Amino acid sequence: MTSCMNNIMINFVQLAKDKSFLQIFQGIGCRTDLVESLFEHIMRNLSIENACSLHIGGDLLLNKASREKWSENVIGTLKALDNRITSYILNNYHGVLHTEQWQMLSSEYRRYIQQNTLCVGDVKRKPRRKPILSSSMRELKH
Questions:
Q1: Exposure of 113 by Cβ count < 10 A (0-12 exposed, 13-18 middle, 19+ buried)?
Q2: What is the pLDDT of residue 31?
Q3: Is 87 exposed, middle or buried (CB count within 10 Å of its CB: 0-12, 13-18, 19+)?
Q4: Which residue of 6, 61, 101, 112 sits 20 to 30 Å from the alpha carbon of 42, by its own alpha carbon?
Q5: In what helix (H) or strand (E) does residue 75 lie, and over which residues does it extend?
Q6: What are the tens digits of pLDDT across the range 94-137?
Protein backbone atom coordinates (compact mmCIF):
# COMPACT_ATOMS: atom_id res chain seq x y z
CA MET A 1 0.00 0.00 0.00
CA THR A 2 2.90 2.36 0.76
CA SER A 3 4.36 2.07 -2.76
CA CYS A 4 0.91 2.81 -4.20
CA MET A 5 0.61 5.91 -1.98
CA ASN A 6 4.13 7.00 -2.99
CA ASN A 7 3.20 6.69 -6.67
CA ILE A 8 0.06 8.76 -6.14
CA MET A 9 2.06 11.38 -4.24
CA ILE A 10 4.77 11.59 -6.92
CA ASN A 11 2.16 11.99 -9.70
CA PHE A 12 -0.31 14.05 -7.66
CA VAL A 13 -0.57 17.01 -10.07
CA GLN A 14 -1.17 14.78 -13.10
CA LEU A 15 -3.67 12.64 -11.19
CA ALA A 16 -5.55 15.71 -9.95
CA LYS A 17 -6.33 16.43 -13.63
CA ASP A 18 -7.33 12.84 -14.46
CA LYS A 19 -11.07 12.14 -14.73
CA SER A 20 -10.75 8.56 -13.45
CA PHE A 21 -8.86 9.69 -10.35
CA LEU A 22 -11.39 12.46 -9.71
CA GLN A 23 -14.22 9.92 -9.69
CA ILE A 24 -12.75 8.48 -6.48
CA PHE A 25 -13.43 11.79 -4.75
CA GLN A 26 -16.81 12.37 -6.34
CA GLY A 27 -18.19 8.95 -5.46
CA ILE A 28 -17.00 8.77 -1.89
CA GLY A 29 -19.82 10.67 -0.24
CA CYS A 30 -19.44 10.41 3.51
CA ARG A 31 -16.78 7.65 3.51
CA THR A 32 -13.40 9.32 3.45
CA ASP A 33 -11.08 6.60 4.81
CA LEU A 34 -9.24 6.25 1.50
CA VAL A 35 -8.90 10.01 1.02
CA GLU A 36 -7.77 10.56 4.61
CA SER A 37 -5.14 7.81 4.45
CA LEU A 38 -3.83 9.22 1.15
CA PHE A 39 -3.64 12.75 2.52
CA GLU A 40 -2.05 11.59 5.79
CA HIS A 41 0.62 9.86 3.71
CA ILE A 42 1.17 13.06 1.74
CA MET A 43 1.43 15.15 4.92
CA ARG A 44 3.91 12.72 6.51
CA ASN A 45 6.09 12.81 3.41
CA LEU A 46 6.11 16.54 2.68
CA SER A 47 9.54 17.79 1.69
CA ILE A 48 11.11 20.93 0.32
CA GLU A 49 11.34 19.24 -3.09
CA ASN A 50 7.68 18.15 -3.35
CA ALA A 51 5.73 20.78 -1.37
CA CYS A 52 4.98 23.07 -4.33
CA SER A 53 3.77 20.32 -6.64
CA LEU A 54 1.63 18.84 -3.84
CA HIS A 55 0.10 22.27 -3.26
CA ILE A 56 -0.70 22.59 -6.97
CA GLY A 57 -2.39 19.16 -7.02
CA GLY A 58 -4.32 19.86 -3.82
CA ASP A 59 -5.41 23.25 -5.13
CA LEU A 60 -6.66 21.68 -8.37
CA LEU A 61 -8.72 19.18 -6.35
CA LEU A 62 -10.05 21.85 -3.99
CA ASN A 63 -11.18 24.07 -6.89
CA LYS A 64 -12.84 21.10 -8.60
CA ALA A 65 -14.54 20.09 -5.34
CA SER A 66 -15.95 23.58 -4.84
CA ARG A 67 -17.25 23.83 -8.41
CA GLU A 68 -18.83 20.38 -8.45
CA LYS A 69 -20.28 20.28 -4.92
CA TRP A 70 -18.33 17.33 -3.56
CA SER A 71 -19.03 15.94 -0.09
CA GLU A 72 -18.35 18.35 2.79
CA ASN A 73 -16.14 15.67 4.38
CA VAL A 74 -13.94 15.49 1.28
CA ILE A 75 -13.80 19.29 1.00
CA GLY A 76 -12.86 19.55 4.69
CA THR A 77 -10.10 16.98 4.22
CA LEU A 78 -8.82 18.84 1.14
CA LYS A 79 -8.79 22.13 3.07
CA ALA A 80 -6.84 20.48 5.91
CA LEU A 81 -4.30 19.19 3.37
CA ASP A 82 -4.01 22.64 1.78
CA ASN A 83 -3.51 24.28 5.19
CA ARG A 84 -0.81 21.79 6.14
CA ILE A 85 1.07 22.23 2.85
CA THR A 86 0.81 26.03 3.06
CA SER A 87 2.09 25.93 6.64
CA TYR A 88 4.99 23.72 5.54
CA ILE A 89 5.88 26.09 2.69
CA LEU A 90 5.72 29.10 5.04
CA ASN A 91 7.97 27.38 7.58
CA ASN A 92 10.44 26.24 4.90
CA TYR A 93 10.20 29.26 2.63
CA HIS A 94 13.91 29.78 2.08
CA GLY A 95 14.43 26.18 0.91
CA VAL A 96 11.23 25.95 -1.14
CA LEU A 97 12.01 29.25 -2.85
CA HIS A 98 15.00 27.66 -4.57
CA THR A 99 13.20 24.64 -6.01
CA GLU A 100 12.16 24.31 -9.65
CA GLN A 101 8.51 23.95 -8.64
CA TRP A 102 8.43 27.37 -6.93
CA GLN A 103 7.95 29.05 -10.33
CA MET A 104 5.06 26.68 -11.11
CA LEU A 105 3.00 28.17 -8.26
CA SER A 106 0.58 30.94 -9.16
CA SER A 107 1.97 34.44 -8.73
CA GLU A 108 -0.89 35.16 -6.33
CA TYR A 109 0.04 32.22 -4.09
CA ARG A 110 3.77 33.09 -4.22
CA ARG A 111 2.92 36.65 -3.20
CA TYR A 112 0.78 35.32 -0.31
CA ILE A 113 3.66 33.13 0.89
CA GLN A 114 6.18 35.97 0.61
CA GLN A 115 3.91 38.35 2.55
CA ASN A 116 3.21 35.85 5.33
CA THR A 117 6.64 34.42 5.97
CA LEU A 118 9.36 35.67 8.22
CA CYS A 119 12.29 36.04 5.89
CA VAL A 120 15.74 36.42 7.41
CA GLY A 121 18.90 36.82 5.38
CA ASP A 122 19.54 36.90 1.67
CA VAL A 123 16.75 35.00 -0.12
CA LYS A 124 18.63 35.01 -3.41
CA ARG A 125 21.27 32.65 -2.02
CA LYS A 126 20.52 28.96 -1.91
CA PRO A 127 20.63 27.49 1.59
CA ARG A 128 23.66 25.35 2.29
CA ARG A 129 23.68 22.13 4.20
CA LYS A 130 25.39 22.29 7.55
CA PRO A 131 28.77 20.60 7.45
CA ILE A 132 29.03 17.27 9.19
CA LEU A 133 31.77 17.47 11.77
CA SER A 134 34.18 14.61 12.07
CA SER A 135 34.77 13.21 15.55
CA SER A 136 38.04 15.12 15.90
CA MET A 137 36.36 18.41 14.97
CA ARG A 138 33.55 17.77 17.46
CA GLU A 139 36.13 17.35 20.22
CA LEU A 140 37.70 20.71 19.32
CA LYS A 141 34.30 22.38 19.35
CA HIS A 142 33.66 21.43 23.01
A1: buried
A2: 58
A3: exposed
A4: 112
A5: helix 72-91
A6: 899 999 999 999 999 999 999 998 765 545 555 555 556 666 55
